Amino acid sequence: xxxxxxxxxxxxxxxxxxxxxxxxxxxxxxxxxxxxxxxxxxxxxxxxxxxxxxxxxxxxxxxxxxxxxxxxxxxxxxxxxxxxxxxxxxxxxxxxxxxxxxxxxxxxxxxxxxxxxxxxxxxxxxxxxxxxxxxxxxxxxxxxxxxxxxxxxxxxxxxxxxxxxxxxxxxxxxxxxxxxxxxxxxxxxxxxxxxxxxxxxxxxxxxxxxxxxxxxxxxxxxxxxxxxxxxxxxxxxxxxxxxxxxxxxxxxxxxxxxxxxxxxxxxxxxxxxxxxxxxxxxxxxxxxxxxxxxxxxxxxxxxxxxxxxxxxxxxxxxxxxxxxxxxxxxxxxxxxxxxxxxxxxxxxxxxxxxxxxxxxxxxxxxxxxxxxxxxxxxxxxx
Amino acid sequence: xxxxxxxxxxxxxxxxxxxxxxxxxxxxxxxxxxxxxxxxxxxxxxxxxxxxxxxxxxxxxxxxxxxxxxxxxxxxxxxxxxxxxxxxxxxxxxxxxxxxxxxxxxxxxxxxxxxxxxxxxxxxxxxxxxxxxxxxxxxxxxxxxxxxxxxxxxxxxxxxxxxxxxxxxxxxxxxxxxxxxxxxxxxxxxxxxxxxxxxxxxxxxxxxxxxxxxxxxxxxxxxxxxxxxxxxxxxxxxxxxxxxxxxxxxxxxxxxxxxxxxxxxxxxxxxxxxxxxxxxxxxxx
Lengths: 382, 285
Fold this sequence. Notes:
Low-confidence stretches of chain B: 1-12
Shape of chain A: elongated
Number of strands of chain B: 0
Oligomer: heterodimer
Low-confidence stretches of chain A: 354-382
Number of strands of chain A: 21
Structural class of chain B: mainly alpha
Distance between the termini of chain A: 48 Å
Largest interface: A-B, 26 and 16 residues
Radius of gyration of chain B: 23 Å
Structural class of chain A: alpha+beta
Shape of chain B: globular
Radius of gyration of chain A: 25 Å
Strand order of the largest sheet of chain A: 6-7-8-3-9-10
Distance between the termini of chain B: 16 Å
């Protein structure tokens, strides 16, 4: 089943929840809608489900327009953030509900219902709980029952709203791996909403990054992490350092250092920001044209990595650097020392169009200044 | 929902133990107050009713006019309670589970009978349906009698009792949210199926509680019914009105005997209410 969202907008009072969103989802895909709270990701999911009517735009299932199909007839499986199990029904009756409310003509007989429900409870490995009530179950168990209940109606698509949001960290990790395996097993086109980037990157085939009611970027987890299209995606996915500065003729001047920004060759004294991941910064032995001076405040050893917390000497901004333990020990620096930061890989965005951030989609993978290229490579090898 | 809240003393106990004398003093004041204003008058009703003996009591209670008053009271309750049950569910369902314009207006209107004096409510019906009222001439022409007749009494009773069920359900349904209803809709349930299998079972104790309060008020209403009834003995007298008439005629023992029926109803209501609260607390824990 393909899902197509075509130019959907939705407004609540004066708040634009969705603003001209279009999205294609391929059959059997597991897609994550990722964004901060209030970004419109849940609204998009609810529009696909039919729980919200879009103000404009269409939703198509397998090419058929379902925008005006009532939620009851849309045949979607929906898993709610807080499970929404029927509290006065047993687990068995919860899962059987979707079958029991069918019109007489298509309703399976009692034997068939029994078989089907026990099969689904077996699928989520909770058949032994069939005569309990929801309040007797743990959060993780309730979420799996909610999933079994959604699957009982043999939905065309499966939609999950923050499925693991209300669970503790350990259960969440277990459950999302389980969801991935289950998806591979039943191969149902699925969309889930999350604000947890780790969850999206780990579980999904494709990630849709949503912000302010618009889609910022769509791509595989690797692609959106390694090649963020906008400053927002850069900041939202993984940790990133921002270096604000001046861009002039293809060079970004940041805090005394310079990095190449070849895509901005025609920039003239523009204000811009370079985004650098913590693991894309090296510590240089001596200052040169491509380094930024900073004071080492704190070094935290985490397994094989060392996380350095630094403050820039020129403006006091916080900078985070990740080094291997080997590299850190070879540097022989201690807390309080002044060090020289060299961005290995940065991406520069010009801040000139604050009203429409998505339009500043200027690719500019840069390396440090040409004379330090070999330096960067050796550092990487080390 | 103050009725199902945990008694305040328990909450205090959980946080920190107050000085014992504070508890004792507060309890004493509360019990003295209740004794003075509640228990003594209630006891007096039964005492006065039985003053002239059990035989007299039964004669007074089974007298033709009293029986007719009982019948009328039961009729008024039997019509108004089911109607207000349906109205209450519909109003609470709309308010708690749907968004629409004029919602706050509807909530305010539901509270109207609580804020208007019952006598005024009765007068409104006289002004609308009475002989000199807006619809009076038309009704007279078609030989339909509403004021000083049973329909008027039923109408007045419905008016004063319609907030009870709705008021009980609205906060309960709002607290439960819309998740379960949405889940039912996604699973293919129609509106009626959702109401019947999901919404109502979740509020059944609150619903029963509202019905009991509604019934108690329907049987005990005096003011509004008094205005529209006309006090025709054996025809348009409800139990509370009958008590007043007997009392005004200095038939004190008979008046108290009839009043004891209403007092008994109150006691039964309190007991049933306590049982429901107990069940409700047990299920929500």
